[in-house]
Amino acid sequence: MIPVFLGLFSLLALIFAVLVVTLRQPMRCALSLVAHMISLAGIYATLGAHVIAMFQILIYVGAVMVFMVYTIMLLDDRDNSYRHPYSIKAITCLVVGGALAAAIWAAIGHTITPAAAAIPAVDPFTFSAFSLAFMKQYWFHFELATVLLLVGVVAAWAAVKEGL
Amino acid sequence: MDQYQFLTSLAGLIFSLGLLGVVLRRNLLVVMMCLEIMLNAVVLSFVGFAVRSQTLPGIAMTFFIYVAASCEIALAMAIVVLLVKRRGSLDLGAHQELKG
To answer: A–B: how many Cβ contacts below 8 A?
Structure first.
């Protein structure tokens, strides 16, 4: 059953990523991006990384995308980029992007050796294991992350204050 | 191709799609969304390798990527709003005089 769900969510993630790149209206792009992120969360949950699936929904869909949707609603999006959504060098971009994607698909998929089929006795991705690792191993990084968040908030506030 | 090879290739494909959007689109907000797609592809590859090796560092790294993404989007949206207020347009062509 896992390969079926993995394939389904991967297909959805790819389709919605393509829609983000191709749709004209920013709000539709944002909603496609939300669907793309939910599909990725489905992949993580299928793989057993439920912690990351939850963070993906809570942080990305719940915080980052809501912020982006607010910004879209705040700004008038019917400008020149609405009438001409793509760069004038779109053909070149498509050719180079397609070649890059084909190269990555061909190269990465075959350079990684297949994993051994051993199933671990203990699941390392439970909430308790994750919490213990953050309290014991990554406590300093966790504190640094809080400082980074604080700096981000102050920088955003300072940018808006200086600009207005 | 086993599922981890498939996941890594998928991450590469999604990353190139995001990169394509960054160079192809002219709307500032859509370019930011394509950057988020690229970041998501990186997270996908981290999770793929973490699940493959059944170890926690990859999972911990994704948590820090989420923190960095939150900071990035908060600051970037503030800058986008200021730029649009100054130039009155979301089109990247209107912001070509930016330096540094």
So the answer is: 240
- On whether any CB of chain A is under 8 Å from the CB of B19, the answer is yes
> A20, B34: Cβ pair inside 8 Å?
yes
Query: Does B74 contact A152 at a Cβ distance shorter than 8 Å?
Result: yes
Question: Going by C-beta distance under 8 Å and a sequence separation of 6 or more, which residues neighbour residue A124?
Answer: B54, B55, B56
Tokens linked to B75: 């600051």
* pTM, to two decimals: 0.88
SS3 A28: helix
Q: Is A121 on the interface with B (CB under 8 A)?
A: no
Give me the tens of pLDDT residue by residue for chain A, a chain 164 residues long. Answer: 788 999 999 999 999 999 999 998 889 999 999 999 999 999 999 998 888 999 999 998 988 888 889 888 888 767 777 777 787 777 888 888 888 888 877 777 667 776 665 555 567 778 888 888 888 888 998 899 999 999 988 988 888 887 75
Grouping H, G, I as helix, E, B as strand and the rest as coil, residue B97 is: coil
Q: Which residues of A94-119 are buried (b: 16+ CB within 10 A; e: fewer)?
A: eeebeebbeebbeebbeebeeeeeee
ipTM over 0.90: yes
Do B37 and A145 count as a contact with CB atoms less than 8 A apart? no
